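Hi, can you check this record?
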Amino acid sequence: MTADRDNWDVYVEDNALVADFAADISTDEAVFAAVNEEFERLAADPDVDTHISVLRMDSPLSSDVFGKAKEAATVGVDHDIHTWIAVSEGIKGHAMTSEIGSIEGVDVETASTLDEALALAAE
């Protein structure tokens, strides 16, 4: 993993694989490669059917970030994760859902809080 791990976390809660990105996360490719590696490891859990991205980051979402998100969504579909929920109070969530929504087999939603996203995942 990368030293930047303090600024992101990927974990499973109930049926959801949660990727939580801190405000000061670096958006360089090495960080998101490490995130996707952890995502792929946890996506193999047969109880997981939803992915939640908590987008707290201050920096703008670059094409590289969108590319890595699409990679993760594609891996998710391969593991029967078909729902993707973006948690953000700003435009980042809408931008991410637009990008991820273009992937066949992925349903996207937005939520304002992690608790709201977990409740949606449990439905």
